[in-house]
Amino acid sequence: MPEMVSKTVFVTGATSGVGLATVKNLAADGAYLVLLCRNHAKGEEVCSTLKKLHPESHDPTLLVADMANLDDLRRVVAAYAEQGGTIDVLVNNAGVVCTQRELTSDGFEMTFAVNHLAPFLLTGLLLPNLMQAPEARIVNVASDAHNFVRGMDFSDLQSEKRYSTFKVYGQSKLANLLYTLELSTRLQGTKITANALHPGAVATGLGSQNGIMGKWIMKLLSPFFKTPEQGAATSLFLCKSDDVANVSGAYFVDSRPAKPKPWALDAGAASRLWACSSEMTQIDYPR
Ligand SMILES: NC(=O)c1ccc[n+]([C@@H]2O[C@H](COP(=O)([O-])OP(=O)(O)OC[C@H]3O[C@@H](n4cnc5c(N)ncnc54)[C@H](OP(=O)(O)O)[C@@H]3O)[C@@H](O)[C@H]2O)c1
Domain range holding 176? Predict the structure, then answer.
């Protein structure tokens, strides 16, 4: 599809699963890709795969940063952002599920940090580059797993009091939705849209870092799940479709608008989460 030929698309978590399927499709469309990966060798492998599949495509730009280290992320992304290149689409896709409570090097709970705080910081750093595009889109890969909780537990954002995998992952994905809601409000009057999506239950590497159990659960369930290519369809729809050119603050499932749970539409919680996230990441979004 030629419509992406002149577009720059910044994607996190492109080394596996939904993100890899997303960038393969975008490379076929001729987009300029900027890939933020935590593992240099894996990132290089994706770049050479894309080049082999689409020799005519642009060389992707590879940025290496661990989203579990906000200082590392800030340094790498700020250096890229300062070069001033325009970004047309940002896909916040990287994510983790952790079955045990782990802390990042900044002292934040891992799932909340990688799934929410890191994209919050990244997006804020890239906003000036998105603002340069004639029309830009922010695509946040959230999940129906926001249904695992009944609201943000502001008394325990770092899951110090209680840790359950479902609660912590669900809360991080609810954070994606509340963030999208508040971000879209703040972006009103600009040419940037922000939408969120659920990719479906997809056979990917998600959870596979949790030892042999994590790997086996995904292996056992994978015949019932979507392929990564099917899972990438809604992300790609939000990146490309003219149907959503003027839509912002919405949630999509199977490339159609969907109604998230009521606690994902709580404007008060969205603005409270924004204030907490801004303090934790030490970023003030440009106005
Ligand atoms: N799979 C599903 O059923 C499902 C359902 C709903 C929502 N989702 C969402 O879909 C998104 C993509 O997940 P997936 O299923 O495709 O999982 P995946 O195959 O495990 O891919 C996750 C990606 O995120 C990257 N990542 C993880 N931690 C990172 C860190 N600290 N710094 C930088 N990158 C990091 C991974 O890099 P490495 O390759 O280096 O590990 C990988 O590229 C996630 O946001 C997830 O929550 C998935």
Answer: 2-281
